[in-house]
């Protein structure tokens, strides 16, 4: 079955009112893509606990562009956008199909800004290192939506609402980043677990606001204190969270998982939004 017919077949069988969860994944080190550890196991278990999606739309911290783009090729390449890691990581290929028709449909849903159909990018490590543990057979179409680096958190939160209809068609929207992400202050002594006081304090603020559905506080993260500013020196790893929160319905709850700090200055905390 081709990917378009697979997509149509799945969505036509959805029960009235069914809606896919939305996920924010703390992706951490690219090595999580080939290691079986508590984080990759958490991703795999999450995939088993939710309906199988018709497609996955990833908003990755590692596709930061001027303007908004969406991958629209039949077979997006696996991008190894990192350096200094073992050859085994560079050898990984994740040959999931794309879905050009779904890319066009998604672009048409977004009316506040033009969306470019992209044929040059692919699946970066913010996408494939997570998804290969969730769907190891690589038989579910995967697309990526870029993050416009010229826009702030409110813009991305609002943009997410424009694609909310995809969840009713079986599309899993997955934001991939890290709430606390300051690589300049990474501690190798704490690489297997542990966070600096400021990282832990910032993460507790994030979790409290998420659980209390205080999205406006999270949108205005620059005003949350010095610990948060230290945790988000640049916004690319934080902004994917805005897409998941922007999709949260009034009656939907959140589940936190993989909630752990590593390397002193990273948190792997992940979020599930579901009815």
From TrEMBL:
Family annotation (Pfam families)? LigB (PF02900)
Q: Which UniProt keywords apply?
A: Dioxygenase, Metal-binding, Oxidoreductase, Zinc
Domain (Extradiol ring-cleavage dioxygenase class III enzyme subunit B): residue spans on this chain = 36-253
Recorded hits in CDD domains, A to Z, give: 45_DOPA_Dioxygenase (cd07363)
Any one GO molecular-function label of the UniProt entry: stizolobate synthase activity
* Enzyme class at the top of the EC tree: oxidoreductase
Cofactor(s), names only, from the UniProt record: Zn(2+)
Output the InterPro entries linked to this UniProt entry: Extradiol_dOase_DODA (IPR014436), Xdiol_dOase_suB (IPR004183)
Q: What is its EC number?
A: 1.13.11.29
Family label: Belongs to the DODA-type extradiol aromatic ring-opening dioxygenase family.
Q: What is this protein called?
A: 4,5-DOPA dioxygenase extradiol
Which organism was this protein described from?
Pedobacter ureilyticus
């Amino acid at each position: 079955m081709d990917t378009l017919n697979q997509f149509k077949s799945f969505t036509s069988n959805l029960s009235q009112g069914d809606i896919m969860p939305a996920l924010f994944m703390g992706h951490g080190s690219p090595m999580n893509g080939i290691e079986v550890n508590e984080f990759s196991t958490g991703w795999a278990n999450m995939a088993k606990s939710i309906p199988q999606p018709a497609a996955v739309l990833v908003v990755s911290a590692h596709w930061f562009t001027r303007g908004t783009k969406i991958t629209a090729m039949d077979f997006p390449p696996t991008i190894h956008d990192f350096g200094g890691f073992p050859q085994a990581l560079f050898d990984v290929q994740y040959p999931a199909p794309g879905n050009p028709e779904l890319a066009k449909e998604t672009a048409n849903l977004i009316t506040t800004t033009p969306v470019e159909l992209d044929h040059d990018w692919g699946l970066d490590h913010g996408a494939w290192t997570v998804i290969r543990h969730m769907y190891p057979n690589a038989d579910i179409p995967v697309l990526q939506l870029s993050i416009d680096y010229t826009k702030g958190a409110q813009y991305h939160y609002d943009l997410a609402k424009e694609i909310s209809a995809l969840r009713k068609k079986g599309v899993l929207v997955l934001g991939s980043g890290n709430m606390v992400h300051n690589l300049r202050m990474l501690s190798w002594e704490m690489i297997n677990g542990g966070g600096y006081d400021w990282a832990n304090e910032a993460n507790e603020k994030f979790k409290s606001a998420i659980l209390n559905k205080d999205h406006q506080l999270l949108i205005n993260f620059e005003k949350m204190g010095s610990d948060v500013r230290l945790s988000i020196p640049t916004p690319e790893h934080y902004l994917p969270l805005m897409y998941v929160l922007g999709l949260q319905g009034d009656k939907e709850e959140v589940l936190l998982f993989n909630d752990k700090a590593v390397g002193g200055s990273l948190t792997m905390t992940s979020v599930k939004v579901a009815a």
